[in-house]
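hey team, just a heads up i'm posting the complex here instead of the shared drive bc the drive is being weird again. everything in one block, sequence lines first with there labels, then the predicted structure for the whole assembly after. its two chains so it's a bit long, scroll down
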Amino acid sequence: MPPLLLLLYNRARWEMEKVRSIFIVEDDPDMCITLRNILSEEGYTVKTAGSGREALALASEEKYPVCLLDLELPDINGIEVMKHLKAFNPDMCVIIVTTYESKDNAIEALKAGAYHYMYIHNEKPVNRDELLITVKRAYDAYQLQEDKKRVEDELRWSEEKYRSLVQSTGDSVYLVDRNCRYLFMNEQHLSRLGLSREQYLGRPYQAFHTSRESRWFAEKVKHVFDTGTTIQHEYRDENGRCFLKTMSPVRDPETGMVTAVTVVSKDITDLKRTERELMATRDYLNNIIDSSADTITVVDMEGIVRDWNKGAEGVMGYRAEEVIGKSNRKFFLDPEEAERIMEQVQREGVIRNYRTVVLRKDGKPIHISMSASLLRDKNGVPIGTVRVSRDITKEVELERRVKEERDNLNLIFESMVDGVYAISRTYEVEFMNKVLRDEFGDCVGDICYRVFHNRDEPCPLCKLHEVVEKGQTVRWEWHSSRMNKIYDLIETPLKNIDGSISKLTIFRDITARKKAEEEIRKLNRELEMKVVDLQEVTRIKTEFLSITSHELRTPLTPMKAQLQMLREGYKGRLNQRQKDSIELILRNLARLDRLINDILDISRIEMGRIKMAFQVMDLNDAVKEAIKMQEPFARQKGIKLKVQLAELPLIIGDNERLRQVMSNLINNAIKFSPDGAEVIIETSTAHEGENVLFSVTDFGIGISEEGKKKLFLPFSQIDASMSREKGGTGLGLAIAKGIIRAHNGKIWVESAQGKGSSFYFSIPIRQKVREKEVPYICDSN
Amino acid sequence: MSTHTATVMVVDDEPDVLLSVNQILDANNYRTIKARDGYECLAKLKEEVPDVLLLDIMMPGLTTKELLNEIEKDSRLAGMKIIFLTAIHSLEAEEIGLLNSKRVVDFIEKPFSVRRMLEAVEKAIKLE
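-- predicted structure starts here --
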């Protein structure tokens, strides 16, 4: 039976036996009845047996504390019966009932273990008092015996229990006396010291420890002996392991004097290390919390501040010791915020970026953004809230200013004739200006595609994604077939106060403008077509000219060659009249050739396709050549050529073409001069050296104002008769003008009718050929 | 009239021009070879290398530019001089790149002067 159950069983049995029962073994029935009656009256439960056998049979079934035993039994000797009864119940108190005559037997019985004996006289009545006292004493003796046994049992059990505990514990447990000699040591401590039980008993502590440790230990033991109190000490051994020693006094139960000291030594090395690590972690966290610029506070469920970091001190101006243990209500501009926040944290477990206004110690209000979460104990019961707050006063101020600017912007939008609206990334209309409100009504808060486009989903052309997600500004044209209109839209990201991005759209009805543009485009296209046509015509004309030039000259070539051969006598001698005829033909052939050349030149000039061989040149050289060419003609008419050439800077020009121009001008001058007159040919620099100037002056008939206007137009000899008379083609001045203009120069005439004419041209002074010469394009004038 | 042993090839698609030029050259004791176009010119150049080539521009068939390129390739023709005799203006000829070659020594516009042509041929031969 397990010790605990045994104990309970004993106790139960003891309780049961408190019902006092008594066993009477007597062969004399009268005596038996007498005894039973007396005891029953006194409250005893009585069992009787008439013989030794009957007595032994009953006693084996039940345990009786007290037995009244007659020694003279018919069957078995009384002492034998008593020995058997004692065997069943060793504690049984047997009272021998005997006559005086057999007192020797009684003494015998006492020796054999009987408790007491009583004399009973056969003729006298039983002494009732004596009987009851004797029985009572026997009972008390029995009970005392039983109590003692019970206490002993319990003590044994208790000892076993403690011994088991002491031996099975992981801690070292040992007992020392005043001189630190070991009295007891558990297995744990034995193994720690590496000793057997025999090696330590009676030996002192210092036999197994250093003198330092021993001194320390002796001191503590003495303290426990002297004060009788339990002490605890941490102690580090030479291996660096840490122990918690609990030293308690052991007292003598009788004297109360301290007789020994129990030492329980617990290895707390790992515990200490964990504790150290925990401390370090806590310090680390505290450091973080303290060095945070944000305010970090802990407020319990009653709204009492429990923690307050350095950041909070900085922001709020209160020191931790001023606020810890106080209610947090007074920090809020509206004290009821405290309850609202607590209530919300409790309901939602956490709140983020809660904006509110708190008051600094100096009374200044500051805006904060608070995040808070619920703090729970290990059983999950809420014990408070941790709050992290940030001073956002500056941001709030900035927001206010941004909003102000936004309001100003809105004012501008209001007065615009263009439609302006803003939508959120969820297509919600956030703003619309007056123009739009007049058309659609106030739709702020509605979904744009529903109110503007009457659709159930976003428009396929919507630029919200480009604008809001990619941050692009988009400009596009929307052709609304439903409204038959064209809109010009500018859509751009708009950053809101809360950091979100909306799409701002400014749009304008450009239907009319587009129609006008389309009209212009159509006209342009037509014009382009015409230009293409014109270019084609020009190309064909140029080709035509080239071919014409070739084709016209081709027949002239063998004609001229054959005539020359005839004149030179290749085909035999000719008489003078034949020679004159050939000269006449050749002269007219030359005129035809000049005419062809002039027509080609003027055509090229008019088409802007005249070719120039530009080079650096001195105009005077060309003048001299031209004069040389015209001298025979002058001589023929008796004209005196008066030449005045200034020293000229170099120019860029086509030597042959300029000579052609000057030759033509000199030829005209001679042609229109009266015989024997003078023609003056001059060159100079003009306009402070910017141009070189050529002039030829005659003293002929002069030109009328009307004539001057037509002078430089093709085929414009002042009248046709003059052409025939003077033998010109009527193209010379037009060609001259084209050539001079191709040199970026100017040609003009000064004349008075009847007094003669002066023809001038000027060419800009330049000394470098331009990289790419721009072909001269003749204007229609 | 001086005596010449030099050979001149005349290339022109116009028979009357070709005839006239040949008559002039023959009368001045030049040996002449006639060609009606670029292809004939190339064929005859393979048989004989003249001292001077009197060349028209704007003929049917092979263009003058192509003809010049073929001539440039033939090393036998390195000493041959070319004189253009044409109704095309010299600036136009220059524009299509006909005047770049060193062997082109003169440019005579049609209708030409007999004296001018003979001077040009004589001058070209003397260059040799």
